[in-house]
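Figure S4 source data
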Amino acid sequence: MKNVIVYLILLCVGSTFCNEKSSDNVNVNYKSGKTDVEKNVSKRDTHINPSNSFSDLFFDSLVMEKFISEKNLPDSIVSRLRSFYNTRNYQFAWFNSDGFTEQALAFWNLHQYVTYNFDTSLRDKSLQKKINNLLTQDSPSISTATPSYINIELSLTDHFLRYMLSNYEKGFVKWKEMERFIPREKLEPMYVADSLLNKRHEDNEYFEDINEPYKLLKVQLDKYYKIAKEGGWLEIYTNKKTLKKGTSSSEIVTIKRRLQITGDMPGTDTTQFFDDTLETEIKNFQTTLGYKGDGVITKQLIEELNVPVENRIQQILINMDRMRWMPAEREGNLIVVNIPEFVLDWYEGHE
């Protein structure tokens, strides 16, 4: 019987004669005395502080060095761990003062799925017990004064790095991209979108090439980013409770133009008449948003149409982040549970 997979939706330059392999299979350059991974360690980003950081918790770098020594971590993980927290200025990745971040919960769900189905090397009963204990608490108060929280934080990052190295084909998730999987500072959506869309890799290998949902969202991000750069769309004003097929109104012109900008309505019709084409596209738009597709324009739908393009970009970015924590596609039957939509999908192979 085929396995049924269940999961929830909720990134050395040198001459040949002077390089050798260390016990960690890491190139060592004896001219500089540094390994390849050491040379890639990011510098500490000191401009990150509590006023712009993603988390409000920070810890001392010496605590991490003690953790590294006690755990006897391999060089390949040590360098990545230092680089990871240097970019965050030693800000927590998986906690804020209110408890686990969304990224922590998503990664732990993925971690459990992978360790119990495919990669037993990541199993850690002690870590699992600690996290499960925190998950049962309604409102855990996280403090950097409690060593156990820092230990869990660093252990999760250790597992995250090992998971990324063992579960993704080399090249598709770059070292620096991996460090950006967990947000480290508050940035404007347009800045983040620009970085994701316009950064080019020399090897032309990208994360979206191995994550189809992420790729599809990136296509939408590109569309809405271009719309934003061109000025977005006009706000729709109306004092009517509903607009239906067969009516004529000045608001219809703006509604048609709004739908045409996002590709939700074909053509260039800008008449005031509510025709069959508009009704069909309104039904499609309603269904996309999770509403009943009755083709009637209500005040609630006008509010949805008036959501600024920058907000839509933010929503896409949030969901792209969530798609990073989806398991890689597996062979066999698949059950996908979309919690927000209250929908369960069953796939046989790719059907």
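Figure S5 source data
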Amino acid sequence: MDNTLFFSPTEAVKTAWNKVHGVKTTFFIALLILVVLQLMTMYLNKQINPTKIDWNDIYILIFMLIIGVVRVMLLAGLNYLGIQRAENVPININMISYGFSISLFFKIIWLSFITMFLFMVIGVIAGLAVPFLIAKFLALSSAMAKLIMILAWFFSGVLALFFAMRFSMANGIVIMEKDLTAWKAIKKSYRVTDGQVFNLFFLMVVNIGITALTILTLGIGFIWTIPYLFINYGEVYKRLIAIDKQFFEQNGFYR
């Protein structure tokens, strides 16, 4: 049986790192464009006078909005390159144009809005509303109420991290399955990450560690690390989608 049907974080790291060879230039060109766009945004932002908005400022804001749209599309293209590289498909810089789709752009924006809203709801309920009601109706002392609030904040953080892991594949699903809506992508991500939260958390810690080590190289290591991170996401996406498909083929229904 193909070992890609079993999600091993360490295997995903090793495989992704090996696949960085031969594609660094492709990712570097795309990332260089992103850096230039970011520098342009920072420069234009300084040209705006917040105390007196005129037509020149409006033109600058419109141009910054266009730059923002291009950045979202470029990131979608980079994610596409990472997933394709994980699938062993030869990639080149021209393939980044896959992300330049208006319908895909709006789906990514809508996906971001939905996930942000869900996290806000989690934060308000778990971090504010529940401890406030407990402290109010149980007439707890000030010290006990503060303790409950701290525990609630900790719990809401853990809960947010849990859902971040469960929603993590939604972006890749939206990019690769254009027929799915943003909401359906979130639901599918929640399904394919079932039972994988600890694996995904471990992988996140490993990638944070790799990024931290890269910073110690004065940024030179990002030539390897940035392509790796996109390919690593593609490797995880590929494996979890394959596991989900295999489960359906064996059982006739999804989890």
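The chain has a mean pLDDT of 85. Residues 89 and 138 are 60 Å apart (CA to CA).
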